[in-house]
Amino acid sequence: MTKKVVLQGTHRAVTAEATWSRIEPLLGEFGITRVADVTHLDHIGIPVMVAVRPLSETYGTAQGKGATPLLARVSAAMEAIEMWHAERFDPPSFAATAHDLELPCPIEALNVRPLRQPLAHMRLDWTQARTLLDGDPVPLPVQLLRLSFTGRSQWEPRVFRTTSNGLASGNTFPEACLHGVYEVIERHALAGLRTSGPDPRVQIDLSTVEDEHLAALLDRLALADTRCEVAMIRNELSIPVFVAFVWSPLYPLVAAGSGAHMDAGVAMSRAITEAVQTRLTRISTTRDNLPSDYRPPHMADPLLSTLKGRPLAEVTEGYGAVHDDLDTELRDAVQRVEKLTGMPSVVADMSTRPEVFSVVRVVCPGLRYPGKGGNSIPRPMPVTARS
Questions:
Q1: Neighbouring C-alpha atoms within 13 Å toward the C-beta of 131
Q2: pLDDT tens-digit readout, 182-202
Q3: I need a labelling partner for 265 at 20 to 30 A (CA). Which of 102, 148, 153, 341 fits?
Q4: Residue among 319, 351, 281, 10 at smallest CA distance from 185
Q5: Are 369 and 266 in contact, with CB atoms under 8 Å apart?
Q6: What are the angstrom distances between the C-alpha of 97 and each of 100, 107, 113?
Q7: Distance between CA atoms of residues 113 and 106, nearest Å
Q8: Contact 242/182 with Cβ under 8 angstroms?
Q9: Backbone CA torsion sign across 179, 181, 182, 184
Q10: Contacts of 318 (CB under 8 A, 6+ apart)
């Protein structure tokens, strides 16, 4: 069993200090030249860091956030390390069609692109992964797992969406798997949101938040004259998933964030801090996929927090669970997913330094993925707030 260390806004296997002492000497090995503090490019003050990786095959920077500067620093560095592993993932593989293999799910359940071809008879490279619950071997397409925007010497048709969904790291294998499962669950919930009409989100009355850490985050936003709106996304898994939106007249961008976790406080904290991180990503303009001529679109107050919300305790009733160790929590989350989908959840171990930390890619066949990607979180904008 992997006993939890409960930190502000997160649960880990060890302290942030222990994690940083493990990874700091290895940053150069993974192409990270700098981990920069960009917190004070904004006026809010919630810690945000950027890990720089100039020779990346995807994005040259990775963002991280946290309740403390050290937690944000660890978050940014570990995200960059995850991407390095996904870019260079080159496992033992074999060529086959899905029709030739005894797969526990149809290939169409693996986040495929909209194609008309009969995918079951398409020849692809596969590698052996394993189920999360029992460790049984399951083949997964290498193309689904590898993440790179550069060309490859061996051509094959692009069958799967290029995403990092389920890519995660941790101090231990169960911790990494749990982070990956929560990300896949989060994207599944986001896929049900709309820009108009009813959707599964329920607005939170932020005055009912009693958790000390969450209250401190909200107080910091209020002191910085930053509006905040938080909602929980109801879902079939009964796992808390939150979305948060923040806006300030000093930089009039409606920035969004999301988070999922068995602990509603952790899930909500992730959503709020990610929204602040989104603001700083725009302000610092260090993300490769940001348009260079971007301008904040909401000069007028977008009326955040004007919708009537419900008490947090009421909205989260029946959601989540309390676990003292990461292994039990992982099993609970995966069992909920498999009960919904009827298909096993699978993990590919990408770790190159397993004695120090684990990097994995979690795949949950049957869960949805947002049509515009996991970085786009829709919010119906009041007509009077449009500029």
A1: 15
A2: 999 999 999 999 888 789 999
A3: 341
A4: 319
A5: no
A6: 5, 10, 17
A7: 14
A8: no
A9: positive
A10: 238
